[in-house]
Specification:
Blueprint (H helix, E strand, L loop, with lengths): L3 E3 H8 L3 H9 L7 E2 L6 E4 L3 H11 L5 H9 L2 H33 L3 H5 L4 E6 L2 E8 L6 H16 L10 E4 L11 E7 L2 H8 L9 E5 L2 E9 H4 L3 H16 L8 E4 L11 E9 L1
Antiparallel strand pairs: 1-3, 2-3, 4-9, 5-7, 5-8, 6-7, 6-10, 9-11, 10-11
Helix pairs in contact: 4-5
């Protein structure tokens, strides 16, 4: 039988504190090999130290205990794949936070005008449009996936409604952030209003859609690249349009929106794909 160690001796060998070992026992991460029924003392096998050390190292990556459990319970290449997936997500999060920190440094240092200067703002008159629409309350983290899925569903439906007549767009009826869930509304302009209403009301529709008439509007907008659509770059674009509106003496005439006029999947990071816009009067 492998050597049994007291919790103190095993803690020293595994580089985990006794307190951590008790926690990991409760969570099912690292159970002792034997618990004395009378004294309640925990004993560990010496060969459990490797698992304990791996747990300690993974904790240094700020990995949640639930993810650590996935890794230490997996075998061979699966464990390595779980770690690679976690670290890819972490690096993406760090990159987003780094960009946000840079954006905030500029804002807090009073360099907002410099940031806004890279955006060219113009106006355009958009005629009245019949749109297929899908509305959802969603937080910022869920927004990109929902936009892609909802516009895909609406574009498919538009084929039965005379086709798409203009660029799809997303309207923000209230703030969408980590704390506020909108709602947001995906819209696809279509040619045939009667056909659109029939499609939207057809039985068995898995997603709730509606048809409405979007009134003619004048939009103040700036055109951005695929890379700039990401948070927080897109915030700077919206703020640049608002700053320009203030300079021009224009007022808001409806909720802000994003207009997607390019093939998102085919576009590269520096390709222009979207207008961020405010209705103005």
């Amino acid at each position: 039988m492998s050597e049994l160690l007291t919790i103190g001796a095993f803690a020293a060998r595994s580089r985990l504190s006794p307190k951590a070992l008790r926690l990991y026992d409760r969570l099912g991460l690292l159970a002792p090999a034997y618990v004395d029924e009378v004294s309640g003392y925990r004993y560990y096998r010496a060969d459990q130290a490797e698992r304990a050390r791996v747990i300690a190292l993974l904790r240094q990556l700020d990995m949640p205990l639930s993810r650590i459990a996935e890794i230490v319970d997996a075998e061979g290449s699966s464990a390595a794949a779980f770690l690679a997936s976690y670290w890819a997500d972490a690096e993406a999060r760090f990159a987003s936070q780094r960009t946000l920190a840079e954006y905030l440094r500029g804002r807090l240092s009073g360099r907002s005008s410099e940031m806004y200067g890279k955006f060219v703002v113009e106006t355009v008159d958009v005629p009245e449009q019949v749109v297929l629409a899908e509305t959802r309350h969603t937080l910022a983290a869920e927004l990109p996936a929902w936009i892609g899925a909802s516009l895909g569903r609406l574009e498919e439906g538009a084929r039965a409604c005379g086709g798409i007549t203009a660029a799809p767009f997303v309207v923000y009826h209230s703030e969408v952030s980590q704390e506020s869930d909108g709602p947001a509304e995906s819209c696809v302009p279509v040619a045939d209003e009667a056909a659109a209403r029939a499609w939207a009301s057809s039985a068995g529709r898995a997603w709730e859609t509606r048809v409405r008439v979007e009134p003619a509007r004048r939009l103040a907008y700036t055109r951005i690249t695929k890379a700039q659509v990401a948070h927080p770059q897109i915030l700077a674009a919206f703020e640049a349009v608002e700053a320009w509106m203030s300079e021009q003496g224009l007022s808001y005439d409806g909720p802000c929106r994003e207009v997607y006029f390019a093939d998102w999947d085919a576009a590269g990071p520096e390709d222009v794909v979207c207008d961020v816009a405010f209705p103005v009067k």
